[in-house]
Amino acid sequence: MPGVTALVLDRERTRMLAVRRSDDGSWTPVTGIIDPGEEPAHAAVREVAEEAGIRCTAVRLIDVRALPEVTYDNGDRAQYLDLCLLCEADGAQEPWPADGENTAAQWFPVHEPPPMNDRFAAQLALALEDRPEARFRR
C-alpha cells in the first residue's frame, strides 16, 4: 500500500514542519496514505492541509523505501511503500493540529529538529542536501 511522507520546509529552508502523533506521542513529518487514484504529490499536499492546516507545494521526490510489515490489533497485516516528498510551505503560516491524528503541529529549526526516528532524520538530511535525484533504499 503506498503512503507519503511530506517533509515540509519553509521557503528559506530554515524550518521544518513536524506533528506530534496522538497515538504514540512521537514527532514526525506529516505522513499519510495515498487515496485510490490520487497522485502522490497531491496526497502529500492534501495530508499537510488536513493534519497541520498548512498550504504547501510538492517540490520533488527525495526518498523511496518499503517500510517494515505491521500487524494491527485485529490481525490485519500490511506493508507500506513510503514516498517522501520535499514540500515548500506557501508563505508564512502557523500550523495547528487540524485533525484528531495529532496533538501538536509546529515549526522547528532544520538544524534543531524534534526527536525523530532514524527514517525521518535521514529523510530530513536528504532534503537538506538539496540534490535533484531521489534516493532508493538498497
TrEMBL record:
Residues of the signal sequence? none
Keywords attached to this Swiss-Prot or TrEMBL record, sorted alphabetically, are: Hydrolase
Q: Where is the Nudix hydrolase domain?
A: 1-130
Q: Which GO terms describe its molecular function?
A: hydrolase activity
Q: Which InterPro entries match?
A: NUDIX_hydrolase-like_dom_sf, NUDIX_hydrolase_CS, NUDIX_hydrolase_dom
Membrane spanning residue stretches: none
- Pfam families, sorted: NUDIX (PF00293)
Source taxon at top rank: Bacteria
Q: Does the keyword Hydrolase apply?
A: yes
Q: Which intervals of the chain form a coiled coil?
A: none
What the record says about family reads: Belongs to the Nudix hydrolase family.
**What name does this protein carry?**
NUDIX domain-containing protein
Q: Which organism is it from?
A: Candidatus Brachybacterium intestinipullorum
- Recite the lineage of the species: Bacteria, Bacillati, Actinomycetota, Actinomycetes, Micrococcales
